[in-house]
Design brief:
Length: 214
């Protein structure tokens, strides 16, 4: 039996997401995995080692939130290896994406990916979320399984624009964390996410600052 290639897995996954991307975007997604596998050997950026597994665990698991993106600026907090920010920036070249991480090795990798893939809509910032003070707030702030809902909301509230939204990508719906969310924030959306070829629970929680909903 012929082994399925990374490109074939990506094609199948995009079809499963009903997501149409042009050839350039597909090539960039595949080149991103090449860079991630190469740098992972020295920098230990992800525990997923096989590029075929990276397709579902990283690319599709990032791209699945595309239908919930609104606005023209996105901040990826604790971006790490560039997830979900880089796949989203590739899929939406008109979206201005900022990748925020405090780890020097990770931001070096991110800088390399931005250069190698010529991602003109992406910038990399090395800083902690609580210390980062951009001149303007972002339309969207996104995190991928980093900390509790209450903690992340508190850390990123100053990064959201006047009508900004915080998108948190989680595993199971964090019922206890949501119950602990204070009155400063309003829950807008809770959605289960179906990621092709990924046999794990995924959900998206979208919240706004209560001040932004009045």
């Amino acid at each position: 039996m012929t082994e399925v290639t990374v490109a074939e897995l990506l094609e199948s996954g995009l079809a499963g997401l009903e997501l149409a991307l042009d050839d350039r975007a597909r090539r960039r997604l595949l080149e991103y995995l090449v860079q991630l596998e190469r740098w992972n050997q020295a920098y230990n950026l992800t525990g997923v080692r096989d590029p075929r597994d990276m397709v579902a665990h990283h690319l599709l698991d990032s791209l699945v939130v595309l239908p919930w993106l609104e606005g023209d600026t996105l901040l990826d907090v604790g971006s790490g290896a560039g997830l979900p920010g880089i796949p989203l920036a590739i899929a939406r070249p008109g979206l201005s994406v900022t990748l925020l991480d405090s780890n020097l090795k990770k931001t070096r990798f991110l800088d390399n990916v931005v250069r190698t893939l010529s991602l003109d809509n992406v910038q990399v910032v090395r800083a902690r979320a609580e210390e980062y003070r951009p001149p303007d707030g972002f339309s969207m702030v996104i995190t991928r399984a980093v900390g509790s809902v209450e903690r992340i909301a508190a850390l990123t509230a100053h990064l959201m624009g006047k009508s900004g939204r915080l998108l948190m990508m989680k595993g199971l719906v964090p019922e206890e964390e949501l119950a602990a969310l204070g009155p400063a924030f309003d829950i807008e959306v809770i959605r289960s996410l179906d990621v092709p070829d990924l046999n794990k629970e995924r959900c998206l929680v979208v919240i706004r600052s209560a001040d932004n909903t009045r």
